[in-house]
Design brief:
The chain is mainly alpha-helical and 360 residues long. It has helices spanning 2-24, 49-65, 73-76, 78-98, 107-113, 128-154, 161-179, 188-192, 197-210, 213-218, 228-257, 290-305, 312-340, 342-350, and strands at residues 28-35, 42-47, 120-121, 126-127, 270-272, 277-279. The chain is globular. The chain starts with a helix and ends in a 10-residue tail after the last helix. The model has no long low-confidence stretch (mean pLDDT 94).
Length: 360
């Protein structure tokens, strides 16, 4: 019973630690893209995701190496931890939504989608959305490392190199996000979505526990002795996706900051009505959301990396991205059509493909 309680409240304790570190550690102070819906002022942010991750992992490594906790503690308590994160996400979602005035929608819809758009706390020292993504990323990394540790403890004489590859690639994914935190201030989540169950529960429960579903599925399995060509394929697919996703988001970030600035040596081509501009070259000339294709490709590479291509569990992660991003593309397309009008129609005619060039 004591172990169940400890596992249940572990995500709560880690979240509290992340919050303290986020507020206490030095941070880059940057100007964002979205504006406060009441004052109209551009929001400012403190970003220190990578130092928070490094310090948290340092504390975990110290605790494990000193014998305070086993290396696979989060694996041992994964079900209780998921239940604790689920409960925390529900309570935090309700607190964030119900403490704000209704926007006129139905209660269930507002609980799911939220009421506040970009809430900040502690005098602007913490932005709710960016903190939630940071918390989810750190919790995910702890789960990945602990789940992998369990595999090595279970099969010390013949561990799977696919587990190593999977953790390395996923750690790249996590660190890449934290290194480019500023770029994500210009993404759909920040300027279009509100803070409700979808975002709060998603970051506190779904992100750190479901994203690790591949390793959750096979950490107890023996080495599948996957061929080298499959490991190479998985790595190439992952980094092809990373190139599309990171390249597209970084190009958009540069364009938003300076519409005349070249990206990777290429001058931007735009559609304009004299007041507004729509980027239509580079990554954004391949498809209208080629970054989504990149996200799906990265998830596919991770599923392949584990070396169990016929096991369903690892494939739930890329399937989730398809289910998430295809409707999101449609929603963003409607939003852009409303915002840009005829200019967006011209972009649709010039860049016909929604996500996959020449296919969809």
């Amino acid at each position: 019973m004591t172990n169940l309680v400890a596992g249940f409240f572990a995500p709560w304790a880690v979240l509290a630690l992340i919050g303290v570190l986020h507020l206490a550690l030095p941070a880059r102070r940057v100007v964002g893209y979205v504006r406060d819906e009441h004052s109209g002022e551009v929001l400012r942010y403190r970003l220190n995701g990578l130092p928070v991750l490094v310090v948290t992992l340092g504390l975990w490594i110290t605790a494990c190496s000193s014998g305070v906790m086993p290396w696979d503690w989060f694996w041992q308590h994964r079900w209780a931890g998921a239940a604790g994160a689920l409960t925390l996400g529900l309570l935090a979602s309700a607190a964030v939504v119900l403490s704000a005035a209704s926007r006129g929608g139905g209660l269930l819809a507002e609980l799911y989608l939220g009421r506040r758009i970009n809430p900040q706390a502690f005098g602007g020292r913490a932005d709710t959305k960016m903190f939630l993504y940071l918390a989810g990323a750190v919790l995910l990394e702890l789960n990945l490392l602990s789940f992998a540790a369990h595999h090595f403890m279970a099969y010390p004489d013949d561990p799977s190199p696919g587990v190593v590859l999977y953790v390395v690639l996923f750690t790249w994914f996590v660190c890449d996000y934290l290194v480019f935190e500023r770029v994500h201030l210009y993404t759909y989540d920040l300027f279009a979505e509100r803070v409700g169950f979808k975002l709060v529960w998603g970051c506190l429960c779904w992100y750190p526990f479901f994203y690790a579903v591949g390793l959750w599925s096979v950490a107890d399995r023996p080495n599948p002795h996957m061929p080298v060509w499959l490991m190479v394929t998985a790595t190439l697919v992952f980094f092809a996706g990373w190139t599309l996703s990171r390249g597209a988001n970084l190009q958009k970030f540069r364009f938003k900051q300076d519409p005349e600035r070249a990206f990777l040596g290429l001058a931007p081509r735009v559609l304009t009505d004299g007041e507004r501009r729509v980027l239509c070259s580079g990554f954004w000339g391949l498809s209208r959301h080629v970054n989504y294709l990149g996200e799906i490709a990265m998830a596919t590479g991770l599923a392949l990396a584990l070396g169990w291509p016929l096991v369903l569990g690892p494939w739930l992660y890329p399937l989730y991205y398809v289910a998430l991003l295809v409707p999101r593309e449609r929603a963003d397309d409607r939003r852009c059509a409303q915002k840009y009008g005829r200019l967006w129609q011209q972009y649709r005619e010039r860049v016909r493909w929604r996500i996959v060039p020449k296919v969809y």
